[in-house]
Amino acid sequence: MFKSFFPRPRLFFSSAVIWIAVAVALWYGGFAAAGARFGFPPDSPNAEPILGLGYFVTPHALWFYGYCGAFLGVFAAFWMIGSPHRYQRWSIFGTALILFTTYFNVQVSVAINNWRRPFFDDVQTALSGDGTKTAADLYGLMLIFAQIAFVWVAVYVATRFFVSHYVFRWRTAMNDYYMARWQQVRSIEGAAQRIQEDTMRFATIVEDLGVSIVESLMTLVAFLPVLAALSAYVSELPIVGVIPEPLLVASIVWSLFGTLLLAAAGIRLPGLNFRNQRVEAAYRKELVYGEDDANRAQPATTAELFRRVRKNYFRMFFHYAYFNMFRGMYLQADNIFAYLILVPTIAAGKITFGILQQILTAFGQVSTSFQYLVNSWTTIVELLSIHKRLKTFEAAFDGRDPDIVERDIVREGELHEM
Q: What is the pLDDT of residues 234-269, one digit of tens each?
């Protein structure tokens, strides 16, 4: 699954994590401020936020781009020279480009959040009727938003086009890797489906989930300080009362509650999805054999195989029913949770409309990032089931019996369900 596209996957990913950690430590340990020596001073913490496209090209931002490019160059050179791989340009530079555009999308969210306070404060002032804010003022701020939005659209379209090719290259790598070993696996139940369908779905889901989790982490890095600063406008929380950094604490506690709730409710789903693919594959295989052999696909045999399909689907329907109930209740409550904790502050008139919008946006960004498992659980379940199928498939490459590996996986899933 991974060695077909990435050079020495275990070492590659572990070294990437370590290298990123080193880069982050050095950046915050002194390199961020070192840019001032070369004409790239850091942004002043007391300065007003920059509105518009200028936010992305400040001297500090340009210094950061160059810093990331240098670290990427060293990492890429190490792997391209030390462990050449057919797909190294896609797996190294392609992944880096996806990560950078993910970072850019997060920065767009920060730029728009900076825009929210002056715009909605001006709206509030204009609605008061004191005449200090004109239509030109509002149009000017809307033009700034349009500039940010148009750049985001251009980057988004280009990124999705590139990601489509990236995912297909990964699928191509897996397809070539498996087809080179076709004689070893051709007799495995559902071999054709695993090569044709599972490789495509695996590459797509891994890319989507990988980008999502990286975006969540980057969003936390970008918005946690914003939410901590905005906590100064909130004096207390309902029931809890006065606590340090109330908005930050509330978002973390609420998100952890949702994550644990959905993880507990959906713990049986990966095993059920895996078994569902097994019974479907067995039923499909018997029907295919029956097309060429009159002695196969007899009514009694197909009826028993379909009974297994039916039984597993009904179990899935039941478990998904209560999972979706918990998920739906939590997500609906999440829509008003931020307003709920802000009621005392709003009722006391301690914040403006612009600050309220900033708080709601920052709180939503942080909560959504912490709720990664809540929002992605069904996709994670699908990925786990695909991974289990490909794991049994690849067992044949190592000389292991796929049926034994599959039974071990099923037994493991049954233990989780007990």
A: 877 888 777 888 888 888 888 888 878 877 887 777
Q: What are phi and psi of 102, to 5 degrees?
A: -65, -45
133 within 8 A of 126, measured Cβ to Cβ: yes
Digit-coded pLDDT (tens) for 303-341 = 888 888 888 888 888 888 888 888 888 888 888 888 888
| Cα angle value 379/385/388 (rounded, 5°) | 140
What backbone torsions phi and psi does residue 237 show, to the nearest 5 degrees? -115, 150
Residue written as tokens 């996986």?
409
* pTM (two decimals): 0.71
* Residue 15: predicted pLDDT: 94
pLDDT at 172: 87
Three-state SS letters, the chain = CCCCCCCCHHHHHHHHHHHHHHHHHHHHHHHHHHHHHHCCCCCCCCCCCCCCHHHHHCHHHHHHHHHHHHHHHHHHHHHHHHCCCCCHHHHHHHHHHHHHHHHHHHHHHHHHHHHHHHHHHHHHHHHHCCCCCCHHHHHHHHHHHHHHHHHHHHHHHHHHHHHHHHHHHHHHHHHHHHHCCHHHHCCCCCHHHHHHHHHHHHHHHHHHHHHHHHHHHHHHHHHHHHHHHHHHHCCCECCCECCCCHHHHHHHHHHHHHHHHHHHHCCCHHHHHHHHHHHHHHHHHHHHHHHHCCCCCCHHHHHHHHHHHHHHHHHHHHHHHHHHHHHHHHHHHHHHHHHHHHHHHHHCCCCCHHHHHHHHHHHHHHHHHHCHHHHHHHHHHHHHHHHHHHHHHHHHHHCCCHHHHHHHHHHHHHHHHC
- Ranges of the chain whose pLDDT falls below 50: 404-405, 409-410, 412-418
The pLDDT score that the predictor gives to residue 273 is 73
- pLDDT of 19 reads 93
Taking each helix axis as running N to C, give the angle between helix 372-395 and helix 299-347, from 0 to 180 degrees, rounded to the nearest 10: 150
For helices 402-417 and 372-395, give the axis angle rounded to 10 degrees: 150
